[in-house]
Protein 1
Amino acid sequence: MDVKAAVALAPGQPLSIEKVQLEGPKTGEVLVEIKATGVCHTDAYTLSGKDPEGLFPAILGHEGAGMVVEVGAGVISLKPGDHVIPLYIPECRQCEYCLSLKTNLCQAVRATQGRGLMPDGTSRFSLGGEKLYHYMGTSTFSNYTVLPEISLAKIREDAPFDKVCYIGCGVTTGIGAVINTAKVEPGSKVIVFGLGGIGLNVIQGAKMVGADMIIGVDINPKKRSLAEKFGMTHFVNPQEVVGDLVPYLVDLTKGGADYTFECIGNVKLMRQALESCHKGWGVSTIIGVAGAGEEISTRPFQLVTGRVWKGTAFGGARGRTDVPKIVDWYMDGKINIDDLITHVMPLEKINDAFELMHQGESIRSVIMF
Ligand code: NAD
Ligand code: AHE
Ligand code: ZN
């Protein structure tokens, strides 16, 4: 079938709106009509050419919501009409990783997904006869896409697509990092580096679990008021700090934070986030994605003296199990998504969403099909 998609033809170039050809679902696959998709910083990262797994031409997008149109042979958990959120980390419930219950990093389709292909090693998308790569197993910048059954979370039908699409990445990543990965306790002191679409959800999660002090660090002062609305108690602009940021934060927290989160993708700030942690027990969680070839460093003494460095993908969430619950939280008013969606636009305007992100003007832009 012909579908409408924003195609990343080459790194660093604007997306191109094209009529693309999409093959139907094969065994174990599902055709989904995407109703809405968020634009995450990771899409911009891959488009920039800094992602070692970035392939071109491709259809990016990994923060969608939509409806099942058709299922391939052998699909048992979904049927046409079901509402779904695509998962860039699937949950097969059968692989060594899923069965370990120690990680959410299901590996069932990871190898082919990382090569921009469906599990059988082929692509369903093409443009004028030329193969297009899938992206993160989701390719939500298309009004129709094909995914493995295990890469779809079935959600309730009264949840609005234009809001819950954000649960497909940013909301779950931020809140999940607090609850599943760091396991922040009530009364904690927390520092969040980066107050964008992820960092504000970390703040929302920290507030939910009862953190006392929630410090937000960002070079953009325009992020302050929304962060305060979500529970930030102190704002620090590194450009206004006299001297080094780390001793300033250690002083502000009277010895260091119990938990810090890096939500930018900057390896220098990852180090500062670790070193702002409390001696003996502080835990720093890396969420931000750094460019190809970049490395983190610190003095090993930071770890010897009890600080812990962690990382998280999709907030440690097991998608098919946890995403429907997070949709319920939203529908029950336990979490705020609406105030984080600052811009809504049609697919034709998707390059504006990237521009707004780069200008620091948006938290989340949502594309509605
Ligand atoms: P965003 O662009 O919305 O937010 C980034 C924020 O960082 C902005 O507010 C910006 O002003 C701030 N910032 C930039 N440079 C800074 C500096 N030097 N000091 C302080 N603040 C600075 O991005 P986002 O969508 O929130 O994504 C954040 C990061 O998280 C990205 O690297 C993204 O790829 C990554 N991410 C990771 C996961 C995961 O599963 N690990 C999931 C989603 C996103
Ligand atoms: N492809 C990159 C890494 C990108 C990355 O870290 N992706 C995160 C999700 S970011 C969502 O906005 C993730 O889930 N990683 C786990 C995985 O298996 O991909 C690289 O460096 O190669
Ligand atoms: Zn994302």
Note: The first strand starts at residue 2 and ends at 7.
Protein 2
Amino acid sequence: MTTPARALRLPIRPELAGEEPYGAPQLDVPVLLNVNENPYAPGPEVVASIASAVAEAASGLNRYPDRDFLGLRGDLADYLAVESGVRLSAEQVWAANGSNEVMMHVLQAFAGPGRTVVSFAPTYSMYPEYARDTHSRYIAGRRETDFTLDAAHAAELIRAEQPSVVILTSPNNPTGTALPPATVRAVLDAALEVDVDGAPAVVVVDEAYGEFRRDGVPSALELLAEYPNLAVSRTMSKAFALAGARLGYLAARTEIIDALRVVRLPYHLSAVTQAVARAALAHAPSLLGMVKELRVERDATVAWLREQKFDVADTDSNFVLFGTFPDRHAVWQGLLDRGVLIRETGPEGWLRVSIGTREEMTAFKDALVEVAGL
Ligand code: PMP
């Protein structure tokens, strides 16, 4: 039987019709400053440790991996104790293939049909997608013109919308803005007053860029003991320079973690991933060694952009949002034509550049001088 030559019709969910997969262009150009990666590849000692850990894991790959991976979760808890001074047990830590998957677990467990997820825009553009993919309603509150979050507005929105999940991002992507603890507390307090089937809202603070925060800016991890409805999400993709390994994690009360364990797929974290992450964590000081340098380079980039009279958002992250351009696409394209890939994202007129090596930032600045006619 022959198939008639017409478009294949599929029973795709109506809300997915015409949707494009999320993702920035992956282009082969010399200077990649578009997805907030760490420009410093793991050094030879780390590579050797990872390789031997993977070899050991390989000899057991006929078996499913450790489903509850308490070894890795304990290592992550130990790392967080050193990084933020907050001591958690292995049972208070969860992990998955990138913090994207961690967040999906959160929404699968706590959002869903008839439920609402609240976040504050401009922010990470995957949040509405997590909501869509879990059949949840998504409401974006606003950030102020300087991208800070007005605590009264946030509390009011939470009261009005009664979400089951609130996502705060600190430092925020794409603006770089970190939230002061008073704002996080105001949101947590408002979330405690929510009544979704008799329960308060869960607040996830997405700290994917947490390690890049400036001195004196605390992590929301410090509030975990006080607020039962708080979860803090982190990743090894950025500060750990391990984006390719796909390891995100989350810290919260065991009751929250236990709910995530219900929705995870069986054996979601491969034995190879677990081995890579544990080997890398044993080298945390060396992997994180370049964070300080990136923060210095970040502050220098902010200062330079301001000297050129650009508007620059205050940033506690490894990227800088700057502008504004009447035709930002032309600027983005002009930089790309000169071998520098940045990101066309954020509010109209703004562009985002990730912090690379000193040489890469020089290439970026030189290209921008030409393109913007400085
Ligand atoms: N949260 C934020 C705010 C991000 O910017 C990103 C990555 N761009 C993620 C989460 C996801 O990171 P990953 O899945 O690599 O952990």
Note: The pocket of 4'-deoxy-4'-aminopyridoxal-5'-phosphate is lined by residues 36, 98-100, 124, 169, 173, 206, 208, 235, 237, 243, 248 (CB under 6 Å).
